[in-house]
Specification:
This protein has 251 residues and is an alpha/beta fold. The chain is built from seven helices and 16 strands. The strands form three sheets. Strands 7-6-5-4-3-1-16 form a seven-stranded mixed sheet. A seven-stranded mixed sheet has the order 8-9-10-11-12-13-15, with helices on one face. The chain has a two-stranded parallel sheet with strand order 2-14.
Length: 251
């Protein structure tokens, strides 16, 4: 299975990073729809698209307004898609429909099926998806995907702790994609804004006994080579990698 990190920044894009969007091309599954969403067009392999939203903050949903181009083929005609479904908390989907796609802001609604979350979820054959709430201002959602031979979890916009309520939901996954917005020493600020420091995430990954950790939602103002406290976090959890846009992870 391949995961492609199409956008790895938090809050706003830069010349190097778009905001949050990741894709499992073989399944047509996308996690969040930040500004990296425009890159989905280059990786579409299926006649279906299922977009799993963590929450409705703009850096995670503005890319939904790019869908009219995402769904165009090389001839610029719209692809014949079986479905394009956006999954998320019901109140968040309602807010996106009413505000992001208000007639005053956007002229034509893309061909979206709005799907409020339910347990369990299925996308295609052989894929089990469960979701769980995360502490964040306004609320956020994490996802776990299980197959017969592998598993992954996607967790963003929350504050990590080694005893976090969601640790059992992600325990033992082969791949954990988790947000990391702040350096160590900013733990109080992390609690206030609902984000995580790098050491907090490393300790959580170790406690959850995950196979590999990919850090996303990185501070857009900090170049990748200047992200602080990486060596100390790797000492806590060696199988950790900082995401860069268009990184491909096979698991």
């Amino acid at each position: 299975m391949k995961l492609i990190l199409l956008g790895t920044a938090g809050y706003h894009p830069t010349n190097e990073r778009q905001t949050m969007c990741s894709m499992l091309p073989e399944l047509g599954v996308v996690f969040d729809a930040g500004t990296g969403m425009f890159r989905v067009r280059d990786h579409l392999q299926t006649p279906t698209l299922d977009i799993l939203l963590s929450h409705a903050h703009l850096d995670h949903v503005v890319g939904l307004s790019f869908l009219l181009n995402v769904l165009r083929g090389d001839d610029l005609e719209m692809r014949a898609m079986r479905h394009v479904r956006v999954h998320g908390a019901a109140e968040k989907l309602d807010a996106i429909r009413r505000h992001l796609f208000s007639e005053h802001l956007f002229p034509v609604m893309p061909p979206i099926e709005w799907c409020p979350l339910k347990q369990p979820m299925t996308v295609g054959e052989g894929t089990s998806i469960t979701w769980f709430p995360l502490p964040h201002p306004g609320g956020s959602i994490g996802y776990r995907l299980d197959w017969s031979d592998r598993s992954m979890a996607y967790v963003t916009d929350t504050t990590a702790h080694a005893d976090a309520d969601y640790i059992q939901r992600i325990h033992g996954v082969d791949l954990l994609v988790h947000e990391c917005t702040l350096p160590d020493g900013w733990e109080q600020r992390a609690e206030q804004i609902g984000h995580s420091c790098i050491g907090q995430v490393a300790r959580l990954a170790r406690a959850a006994n995950v196979g590999k950790l990919i850090l996303v939602h990185l501070n857009a103002l900090v170049p990748i080579q200047e992200v602080p406290d990486v060596a100390r976090a790797r000492a806590l959890f060696p199988k950790m990698q900082l995401a860069v846009d268009q990184l491909e992870v096979v698991f």
